[in-house]
């Protein structure tokens, strides 16, 4: 009698999808189908090329996050162009703590069609220079990213070098910072930045015009809030005040615009930083890093137009991606180099941006020493109620002087209004008075027409209030509280910079 056979063990379920073999040429898998293999249409590849290259560069930093795996990142690495910006470099700054990346966007327009140039206002000849330059410092504990914008028109002393186009040898001479790339490419750009900052660059990332729009579209657009209408005829930007989800095309216009702010380049850098924070929020909150399909779409878009140093490979991407997996907008901080003279004249060059020598030295010393640039925020007390979200306003409440009056018979109403405005940041007199009107039904804000932006910011904190212009009143706003007053609505400036280095954190500039 034959012994019964033991029951067979059921097959183990597959816990991970089968690994997809990358194409033999190492290029990322593309969308669409042709001959059973996904491809991208030619029309898609000819999308307009412009945007905030640094936002795209930051997308590179999130590669490898979310447990996507070594094999996928390795297959995508083949799409990166390589450059050697550190060749034959000597007398470099000493390494500090953490990792420093130089993110550079170049002014290339080779593949943009005539129709696209017209639609996105991209006319003019390229200067073959850097349009955007930022230093990104990732802290040694991988808990913080500090981003410092370097104005492209910064006054710079280029080290002695050989012109990459003519082969002619040049002595050290003054230029605008963005001209270093035109004269000596990535190597001279790195040398110049290291010479100016004293910060050793560990990795170099260079992004062209293609990836920005593709990246924005791949993550499903980016949400931007603006406290006032923004219109720029040079770029075609036309945004009313409020919240907007920008696709690649409109995002392109948003980060390019230079004619919607008093300080054109400073305002543009602030918008670029704000956009970076919003992109980080989008990438870390909507599952991009945890969804292999979306991850590959986003990363393939980015890597197809990125150039990096040879040392920035799979392992570095995985390490940085792992660090940024737990990032939130609050993990990032943004600032610009402190400016001493925004219009420093240089013979033969024109107007340049001269840094504040003492303040910029302290800023870059903080980077080398791996210190936060933004002041520490007090932690909320245990059990404390969550603060109400603040409405964005054009002028910071700290900059607005307010005198409060009580326009009703109710005792203490003026004191309540003054305290509420002061709590949200307004510079009140802390001495409310009784108003001439004692039966006012609707709260009234009177202001000098010269300070209309401040008046609108104040009125946003007093829902339902009436605005009335009074010529000659001066810079102090006057609030007469009416019987309709209930509470002060929290408000905050669109670009609230704090601390010694005028820094903002990502959570302070993304939409409330």
Descriptive report:
This protein has 512 residues and is of the alpha/beta class. It is built from 14 helices and 26 strands. The strands form 8 sheets. An 8-stranded mixed beta sheet has the order 1-14-9-2-3-4-15-26, with helices on both faces. Strands 19, 20, 21, 22, 23 and 24 form a 6-stranded mixed beta sheet that branches. The chain has a two-stranded antiparallel ribbon with strand order 5-8. Strand 19 (401-406), helix 12 and strand 20 form a beta-alpha-beta unit. Helix 2 packs across helix 9 (292-303) and helix 3 crosses helix 10 (314-324). The longest helix is centred in the middle third of the chain and has 22 residues, at 264-285.
What's this model, at a glance?
Helix content is 28%, strand content 22%.
Largest sheet: 8 strands, mixed
Poorly predicted ranges (pLDDT <50, ≥5 residues)? 1-68
Strand content: 15-25%
Mean pLDDT: 79
Number of strands: 26
Q: Please report the number of helical segments.
A: 14
Helix/strand/pairing category: alpha/beta
Query: Going across the major beta sheet, what is the strand order?
Result: 1-14-9-2-3-4-15-26
Termini distance? Answer: 78 Å
Oligomeric state of the chains present here? single chain
Give the C-alpha Rg: 27 Å
**What is the molecular shape?**
elongated
Relative helix content: 25-40%
